[in-house]
């Protein structure tokens, strides 16, 4: 064959491919919708996960368009997505039109990586069944039952703070709170005394850190899994390290075997999972399915509550007057309850709730929320459509730092969550646990865990900024969870 013809044929194929890609990426432009111009290979996320966090990138896009668009058309690599700005549209997606957006669009691999097929990720009927069956675990009655277990762990937290303050006056709060949440969830979910507050080299604690700080894949690769789920499944790509999989499978197996053989009942999350595992009906779980739900309970509680507590103590160290007010409020409430830290006393600590909610506003643990439309969706009040498979991207971080919603959003101000201020805002303006039918099932437990930990940390200790702390805080670019690079070093002083 003539070499010239070969060269021209190759060039023609390349030009055709480039044309097709450019045509594909012109989706939002052709629709006349507001959009960000995508890169031909990376979509709108070039550099994310290496030089910049996805949280920062989406906040920049949000700020650029927030005054003139209900959403912005973007691409997550090759997957069409819409960054949602208008709060009414947020509410439609998460609540009113949930029947269009009932799945998150997450990647999971039930066959090769069963721990990834947990309730946060899974789709459709199986998700609905699990949500319905597990919701009773998180009622106020169950929270009251679990409360004494959390208080016992919080006492060990107080002892650890005392021990560390005797050695030196600086503590890495990030590591300390990760150990506290490890011990809480080990006790509540598995009935196991993890003892990570006492043991420096603790496997439970190390595995928790590895899930988030050392993921199996780079962040760009995690985004590619969102874009090419079917291909990734065919290739058998896993989400988690084999070491994590083996460890949690063994822990769950030993817990289940012990409870069944010894007829142990603790009226908790694991009991409900075991009932479903042993049932013969349509709600029956396989062991892999049971293990996946136990795993996500640990993973979600470990990272979200520990990050909430570390950011909270950091902000209280930055604002000593708020720290004093929070501490005085704790003592005032306890005095009304005969000095006892009861479940009812915790519920009366309204200012502590304000402090924690303001922390969640500034540092939402899950800063980016995803919903995927299962069919074409007409955006209310517009002529725009989200085609089937479009990813609705909601940046809780950007919304919660929007000065139109929260005045002086970079300033830590618990009064943002006074009863009056909360009444004057749409509920979807504050999304640390999502909203609608697919909100975080364990939000109530997570808040209780944080309240108990904060009371233990604040009652007898004062926190100030340490010279070892790098400021401003740098958000880690390697995952969707709001964590910072390095430790959160604070000076701690016992209050006589």
From TrEMBL:
GO CC aspect terms: endoplasmic reticulum membrane
An example Gene Ontology molecular-function term: monooxygenase activity
Gene3D superfamilies listed in its UniProt record: Cytochrome P450
Key words, A-Z: Endoplasmic reticulum, Heme, Iron, Membrane, Metal-binding, Microsome, Monooxygenase, Oxidoreductase
Annotated compartments: Endoplasmic reticulum membrane; Microsome membrane
Cofactors, names only: heme
Domain of life: Eukaryota
Membrane disposition: Peripheral membrane protein
InterPro entries: Cyt_P450, Cyt_P450_CS, Cyt_P450_E_grp-I, Cyt_P450_sf, Insect_CytP450_Detox
Ranges annotated as spanning the membrane: none
Residues that hold heme according to the record: 440
Claim: Membrane is one of the keywords in the record: yes
Keyword Cell membrane applies: no
Coiled-coil annotated spans: none
Family, as annotated: Belongs to the cytochrome P450 family.
Name listed for the protein in its UniProt record: Cytochrome P450
The species this protein was found in: Hermetia illucens
């Amino acid at each position: 064959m003539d070499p010239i013809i070969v060269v021209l044929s190759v060039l023609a194929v390349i030009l055709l491919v480039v044309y097709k890609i450019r045509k594909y990426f012109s989706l939002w432009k052709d629709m006349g919708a507001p959009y960000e111009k995508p890169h031909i290979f990376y979509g709108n996320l070039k550099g994310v996960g290496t030089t910049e966090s996805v949280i920062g990138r989406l906040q920049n896009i949000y700020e650029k368009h927030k005054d003139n668009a209900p959403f912005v058309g973007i691409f997550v690599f090759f997957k069409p997505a819409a960054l949602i700005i208008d709060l009414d549209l947020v509410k439609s997606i998460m609540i009113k039109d949930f029947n269009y957006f009932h799945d998150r669009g997450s990647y999971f691999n039930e066959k090769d990586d069963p721990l990834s097929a947990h309730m946060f990720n899974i789709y459709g009927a199986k998700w609905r069944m699990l949500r319905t069956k597990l919701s009773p675990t998180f009622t106020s009655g169950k929270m009251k039952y679990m409360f004494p277990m959390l208080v016992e762990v919080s006492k060990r937290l107080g002892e650890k703070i005392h021990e560390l303050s005797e050695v030196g006056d600086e503590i890495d709060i990030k590591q300390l709170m990760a150990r506290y949440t490890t011990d809480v969830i080990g006790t509540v979910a598995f009935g196991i005394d993890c003892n990570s507050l006492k043991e420096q080299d603790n496997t439970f604690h190390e595995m928790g850190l590895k899930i988030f700080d050392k993921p199996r894949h780079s962040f760009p690769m995690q985004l590619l899994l969102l874009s090419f789920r079917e291909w990734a499944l065919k290739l058998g790509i896993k989400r988690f390290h084999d070491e994590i999989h083996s460890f949690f499978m063994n822990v769950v197996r030993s817990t289940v075997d012990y409870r069944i053989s010894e007829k142990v009942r603790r009226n908790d999350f694991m009991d409900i999972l075991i009932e479903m595992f042993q049932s013969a009906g349509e709600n029956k779980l396989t062991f892999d399915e049971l293990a996946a739900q136990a795993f996500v309970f640990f993973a979600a509680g470990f990272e979200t509550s520990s990050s909430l507590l570390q950011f909270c103590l950091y902000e209280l160290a930055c604002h000593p007057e708020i720290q004093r007010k929070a501490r005085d409020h704790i003592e005032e409430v306890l005095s009304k309850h005969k000095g006892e830290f009861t479940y009812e006393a915790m519920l009366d600590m309204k200012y502590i709730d304000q402090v924690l909610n303001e922390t969640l506003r500034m540092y939402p643990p899950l800063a980016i929320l995803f919903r995927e439309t299962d069919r074409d969706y007409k955006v209310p009040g517009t002529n725009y459509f989200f085609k089937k498979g479009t990813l609705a991207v909601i940046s809780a971080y950007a919304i919660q730092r929007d000065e139109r919603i929260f005045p002086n959003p970079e300033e830590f101000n618990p009064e943002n969550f006074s009863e009056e201020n909360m009444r004057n805002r749409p509920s979807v303006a504050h999304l640390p646990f999502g909203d609608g039918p697919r909100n975080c099932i364990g939000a109530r437990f997570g808040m209780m865990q944080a309240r108990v930990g904060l009371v233990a940390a604040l009652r007898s200790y004062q926190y100030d900024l340490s010279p070892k702390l790098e400021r401003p805080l740098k958000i880690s670019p390697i995952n969707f969870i709001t964590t910072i690079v390095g430790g959160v070093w604070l000076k701690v002083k016992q209050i006589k």
